[in-house]
TrEMBL record:
Protein name as annotated: Glycosyltransferase RgtA/B/C/D-like domain-containing protein
Segments traversing the membrane: 33-51, 131-152, 183-210, 217-234, 273-296, 303-326, 332-349, 370-391
Superkingdom of origin: Bacteria
Keywords, alphabetical: Membrane, Transmembrane, Transmembrane helix
Length: 515
């Protein structure tokens, strides 16, 4: 086929291709900036290990699975839903032994730090205008993320939503830079953390193939499209014999899930509304109105509208899945509330910009720059002060959060010390069946080197060992092995007691104390 007879693209498509890329790429952020931001995020996350730290339930299971993969003994029949990207990391960390949990915490927390940085950057970028306007937008967006949706608690305990938010915001920024393949790859990484990303990534992939004829683009989309089901489904088939085990597990929500409400979809929306500060929601509505006006008049600010639409679609998707029987956990909403926070930050920034522009016009040409700057700084101070009524209680709640997080870390510390005193986790588990409380199963499985399915919840007669603990300061001791004949207490720590039908290892601290 000659060039003259080759099928021609529609004129509108050629126009779209011509408009999309060149201008954006001329002002695109240097990729080294992101490498630097990622390095800073990892460094900050590593420093947080100076604070008493522990993963929570899901991350402990991923850490156990990483160890099982390097031992070619993966078992996923029990535990949370599978997440490919998290287990890729924990598999890499597994050979490092006892520090593997802390290495995962660095990655999970680095994702959270990067998410905060990217929310600041995206709000700064979308706002435009003066530096005070951009600064207030970025600060509001970042602060709104930090104090919304239990972000700090979830990220401190090693959940993966920080990475999800970071990859998504980073992808949006690379799209604005005209780096569409990079944006797609970042979306692919997000899709290895939550399946709700798949529809968005699929639409973006089709759009990318439409506007970019480069063979590298075709290969990128095809390879990522194949890897998503491979990485989500094949490990589950290996570990449980069921391709859909993760989906089945996600449809067994906790008792307090909105899935059990009369109308789960609406319950998720109701639960989401208070997660965002009232001033941020109002500012987001203002930013959306201004962006819509700018779009209809001058074809500007489409990105602001798109970010808000993405937030609404994400929240509605989570609500629809909850209506279909999935858990609807509040932390799944974090990506949606973050996008709203970014648009809210833009609203605050636009208010500062408008105030500065009005005063600048009144002040005359010679004094305009100084007046705009001064007005912008004053408006920043006023807006930050005005939001304290809503934000203050959330910042003050960090004291209680600190107490709760330290206690969770104490559970891990006490378990480690207790097992050392009886001769080690493997010796303790060798007595027979191992039992612990509901929320401690994967942590105990890690320390006694068992599959999570081999750590039970019910104390049975016969040879066995029990890790009894209080999951919170106010909770009672669970399980209760003293109700079953044959069990004796080997070790007593503040939050954790060890009971067994077998004695402590000869020569161990507990054995010497008993002797």
């Amino acid at each position: 086929m000659t060039a003259s007879t080759a099928p021609q693209s529609p004129a509108w498509l050629d126009t779209l291709r011509a408009r999309l890329t060149p201008a954006a790429r001329e002002t695109a952020t240097d990729g080294r900036v992101y490498a630097l931001l990622a390095a800073i995020s990892v460094a900050i996350a590593a420093l947080t290990l100076l604070y008493p730290s522990t993963p929570t339930y899901d991350p402990w299971a991923w850490i156990v699975w990483g160890r099982e993969i390097i031992n070619f003994d993966l078992t996923t029949t029990d535990g949370p839903s599978w997440k490919p990207l998290t287990v890729i990391f924990t598999t890499i960390f597994a050979p490092f032994g006892s520090i593997a949990p802390d290495l995962w915490l660095v990655v999970g927390r680095a994702g959270a730090v990067m998410a905060i940085i990217m929310s600041f950057r995206l709000a700064w970028r979308l706002t435009g205008g003066s530096i005070p306007a951009r600064a207030i937008a970025g600060v509001i967006a970042a602060m709104a993320l930090i104090i919304s949706s239990q972000f700090v608690r979830n990220m401190t305990l090693g959940n993966s939503e920080g990475l999800l938010v970071a990859f998504t915001l980073w992808g949006i920024e690379r799209h604005l830079d005209g780096k569409y393949r990079q944006a797609f790859v970042l979306g692919f990484l997000a899709a290895l953390l939550r399946p709700e990303i798949w529809p968005f990534l699929g639409v973006y992939g089709l759009w990318l193939l439409l506007i970019d004829r480069d063979k590298r683009t075709l290969w990128t989309v095809v390879v990522c499209g194949v890897l998503i089901p491979v990485l989500w489904l094949l490990p589950e088939w290996w570990g449980s014999g069921n391709f859909w085990r993760a989906a089945d597990r996600a449809q067994r929500p906790n008792p307090n899930s909105p899935a059990f409400a009369d109308f789960p979809f609406w319950q998720v929306i109701k639960n989401t509304w208070p997660l965002m500060l009232t001033p941020v929601k109002a500012a987001a509505a203002f930013a959306l109105a201004v962006a819509a006006w700018n779009w209809f008049r001058r074809r500007r600010d489409l990105a602001v509208i798109a970010v808000f639409v993405l937030a609404a679609l994400w929240i509605c998707e989570i609500a629809l899945m909850t209506q279909a029987g999935f858990s609807g956990n509040p932390r799944y909403i974090i990506l949606g509330t973050t996008l709203v926070a970014v648009v809210g930050g833009v609203g605050f920034g636009r208010a500062v910009q408008i105030a500065g522009d009005v005063v600048g016009r009144l002040g005359g040409e010679r004094r305009s720059s100084a007046l705009v700057l001064g007005t912008g700084v004053l408006a920043c101070a006023v807006l930050l002060t005005a939001t304290y009524h809503w934000a203050g209680p959330r910042f003050r709640s960090f004291g209680k959060l600190d107490t709760a997080l330290r206690y969770q870390a104490q559970l891990r510390i006490d378990l480690e010390k207790s097992l050392e005193r009886v001769g080690g986790g493997e010796y303790f588990a060798a007595c027979g069946h191992v039992v612990t409380g509901t929320y401690q199963v994967p942590m105990v499985a890690w320390y006694v080197k068992r599959h999570t399915k081999d750590v039970g919840l019910e104390v049975l007669p016969g040879p066995g060992s029990v890790v009894s603990s209080r999951s919170t300061r106010a909770a009672g001791w669970k399980p209760e092995p003293w109700t079953i004949p044959g069990y004796s207490k080997l070790v007593e720590q503040r939050s954790t007691h060890l009971h067994s039908t077998c004695p402590a290892k000869p020569g161990s601290d507990a054995a010497r104390a008993a002797g």
